[in-house]
Amino acid sequence: MSSYIAAIDQGTTSSRCIVFDQGGSIVSVAQKEHRQIFPRPGWVEHDAEEIWANVLDVVHGALSKLSITVHELAAIGITNQRETTVLWDAETGKPVHNAIVWQDTRTDALVRELGGEQGQDRFREQCGLPLATYFAGPKARWLLDTVPGVRERAERGEVLFGTMDTWLIWKLTGNHVTDVTNASRTMLMNLRTLDWDADLLREFGIPRAMLPEIRSSAEVYGTARGTLSGLPVASALGDQQAALFGQTCFEPGEGKCTYGTGSFLLLNTGEQPVASRNGLLTTVGYKIGDQPARYALEGAIAVTGSLVQWFRDNVELIASAPEIETLARTVSDNGGCYFVPAFAGLFAPHWRSDARGVIAGLTGYITKGHLARAVLEATAWQTREVVDAMNADSGVELTTLKVDGGMTANNLLMQTLSDVLDAPVVRPIIAETTCLGAAYAAGIAVGFWEGTDKLRDNWHKAAEWLPAMESSIRDKGYRKWRKAVARTMDWIDEDDE
Amino acid sequence: MPGLIQSVERAAAILRLLAGPSRRMGVAELAATLGMPKPTVHGILRTLQHVGFVEQHEPTGKYQLGAALFHIGSSYLDGNELRTRALNWSDSLAGRSRESVRIGTLHEGNVLVVHHVFRPDNSRQALEVGALLPAHASALGKALLAANSYATDELLAGELTGYTAATLTEPAALRADLEATASRGWAADLEELVEGEVSLAAAIRDRSGLVVGAIGISGPVERLCDAERVPLAEQVSYVREAARAISRELGAIPW
């Protein structure tokens, strides 16, 4: 009897497996971190083999914690860090290079070259994305250009391309496939045909023979071999799309923001892609089997939770991430201090790779408590900027923000968020919506759950924060924030690494 | 130097010796090494044993450093940290029990609510993080007190406020209830704080077995108890499973 669904969350810092019961409640969790490899400033890599070993470990770990075998799982779903790119040998299964992580900025020059005179919006019409180091296409191109012999072998289909979903599905089942949401982050897929775009492949210099087949987000891609033998692998969704699915944002106009390393606000725009004029991305939200794809607008913020980690690891004013709230509560406001964490440039809605971080408004009055406040408020103000862009593009005013992710455990941040947005902020009963979304999609694919209506019944409010800030204070704070943002721009020069 | 207390110095010397290479020493051995009379050493050891700083090794009768000593300086668990680590399991508990969930820690004779998950029925509810509950009249409080005799003694030194007819205001009655709580591993408040309301809770332990908080559910007596006003076994098991899962998350050995 299959009573559970498992989800693998292959994330930026760790891999996790969560097992859910029919009611969508978590019954088991296992997690394992992997190494972050920094060969040079701005470069970030992962060892794809280490990740694969960790994924197997956490799946078995989650099963053994619950004392069940793989036969009690109806299916397993996958959600993953998006855009991170790996190329591997089809014969031996060995990666030809470390995976290049989404945060990596090594393709900066390549991206400018690809933009040419038309600049970063050159391919926006076809793929919905601006040219940026963030996406998978330029990373694949860099590997083809840099690793000796790989281009020739890729043209013969002897070296394969994949984002982490593809890598894991290939390792699990032997099938070379990806889903529409992950493919929509490569800059190589046409948003309307949902297939690889011949023009884009030519412009990026990517051989089609190395690319996986693009499938829906919820269908059985194959059954696992090896120690998980017989287990249907039944969903794949980029982490943010999985969270949208897990928050049951199935109707146009419904959206969510996930607070993790970075933060991502996605809004379901229905069966048609909406072009952005305000620095948002147009992306695929999800596609269930044969049903039409649902599109989404996305606002990506590069540094939110990672700023707290930086504060912990590099500044060492706190011993653990949650302690930031304790430290921030030692003062009642930011003391006039603003922290814009443009560590690798600014993402939405600015998309400025020449920006770098700034702490503005420093005076002799500022204590570590004020800095902790400024760190938390940075996440709230960055969300505000994205929400403003979203409202302008979609023409719909956001009335409530659905949130999830680890940072929602921070009550002070959630209250600040509600204050600066002047809107209620609600957390659903399962903050792990990323895993839940992958589990839901896999469950629908194998008939464990009947359909999306059934899933909506599982969504419940676990907490709600209401705005309690005077508008004059909010307006002044936003004005100061924008002045601080302006001071981050134009920092990087030609001769910087 | 005026005001130094000799017995404290002697106690410190004994602790230093026990932290040394031999680890486990008898009364005679300690007395000889320190040049102190055996009865004095024995008295100090008994006092240190009482506060948990030394333990007697059963088979040999020798003394060794106690678990409580290792907690000093490291035992404090930040409430925000506890909430973060408990987030998944408190959500799960709300999902399975269909009731609201609270996590609390002891704070000057009260329970400080550090985390609150709404009852999953989408009704209008307000976040109660930061609220204080009376320790003797809530399941969270009783789960915490049952593992903390010091806090219990302190609480019983004062007046126990009555909130309903069922509140335990007699010290003997509360002590008996805490003993029952400790032996069965979970606490119950049966309309002791609010008429018609019941709460159930279990203690959360860290790596060293120390109780760092408690997690519980609360709701109407009709939903949480049977006709005899006995808490439903299923609900109790959800609470205890959640407490165990969070304890595991904090590194406690599964029990």
What descriptive keywords fit this protein?
heterodimer, A: 497 residues, alpha/beta, Nucleotidyltransferase, domain 5, seven-stranded mixed β-sheet, six-stranded mixed β-sheet, 16 helices, 21 strands, 33% helix, B: 255 residues, alpha+beta, Arc Repressor Mutant, subunit A, Beta-Lactamase, 2 domains, six-stranded antiparallel β-sheet, two-stranded antiparallel sheet, 42% helix, elongated
**Average pLDDT metric of chain B:** 89
Q: Provide the β-strand percentage band of chain B.
A: 15-25%
Quaternary structure of the protein: heterodimer
CATH superfamily of the largest domain in chain B: GAF domain
The helix fraction of chain B, in percent, is 40-55%
Q: What fold name stands as the CATH topology of one domain in chain A?
A: Nucleotidyltransferase, domain 5
Number of domains of chain B: 2
CATH superfamily of one domain in chain A: ATPase, nucleotide binding domain
- The total strand number of chain B stands at 8
Q: Radius of gyration of chain B, Cα only, in angstroms?
A: 22 Å
Q: How would you characterize the largest beta sheet of chain B?
A: 6 strands, antiparallel
Calculate the mean pLDDT score of chain A and round it. Answer: 92
Number of helices of chain A: 16
| Beta-strand share of residues of chain A | 15-25%
* CATH architecture name of the largest domain in chain B: 2-Layer Sandwich
Determine the number of helices of chain B (DSSP H or I, runs of at least 4 residues).
10
Function (chain B): May be an activator protein for the gylABX operon.
InterPro entries (chain B): GAF-like_dom_sf (IPR029016), HTH_MetabolicPath_Reg (IPR050707), Tscrpt_reg_IclR_C (IPR014757), Tscrpt_reg_IclR_N (IPR005471), WH-like_DNA-bd_sf (IPR036388), WH_DNA-bd_sf (IPR036390)
GO molecular function (chain B): DNA binding; DNA-binding transcription factor activity
Protein name (chain B): Glycerol operon regulatory protein
